[in-house]
Amino acid sequence: MAGARDDDPHVVVELLGRRTHILDLSREIGPDIPIYPGHAKVAFWWHLTHDEVKHYRIHPESRFGGYAVKGMALCDHVSTHIDAVYHFNRNRPDLTVERIGLETLITPGAWIDLSSVPPRTHITRPHVQRALSAAGVALRPGMTLLCYTGASKNWEDPVRFNSEYPGFDEEASRWLLDQGLVNVGTDAPSTDNPADTRYPNHLVHGERCVPHTEILANIDRIPRHAGFSVMILPLRFQGLTGSPVRALALWTDE
């Protein structure tokens, strides 16, 4: 992998015969990350250590050092995650996270900068349209739109991260889905304004049966506003309303 470091979210690989850039859009998962208010926190614990396995399960003369296993407990909406339709539409228990199709998870992508919208206010249709115009982005059916609000800068401050960000109003939410988007992503903890407990964006996505993705990272590091692909890969948890994801932006050298 050219140019890769252990802490570098950007690598270059050969993919399908082409030199491809991959940017990790995912946050880490661990006991100390910010958790949306009211959601379960993350817990990890040792189930079996190397020493325990070596002592109890391995032949005394074996050179094998044993294996290790950890247990974990977490919410299905933790860190970078996708919201399945059942999360915000109680009448669609058939649309849980394992039912999201690959055509929704691997799509053409675009991103816009909405960081000028003040925290705890609504992102309106004019905000979105101005950002699209500034970025030179034309939306089309089947796309994923990533929205940079600037909330990601507060990741190390859980109180601010969970309370200081904007979210879409109902008109903007409807207009975006009218363009045929199959997923809308944000770097914030929610696509909704935390000061508006009517959850207009979740309401609209529930009505339209369109998932969305929250707590993305590195959106503003994608070097082009369009002409890249988005890959969002949840685990196939049966019956759950969401899943942590590994989210990637991919593009090739032109």
From TrEMBL:
It comes from the Bacteria. GO terms for biological process: L-tryptophan catabolic process to kynurenine. Pfam families: Cyclase (PF04199). GO terms for molecular function: arylformamidase activity. InterPro entries: KFase/CYL, KFase_sf. Coiled coil: none annotated. This is Cyclase family protein.
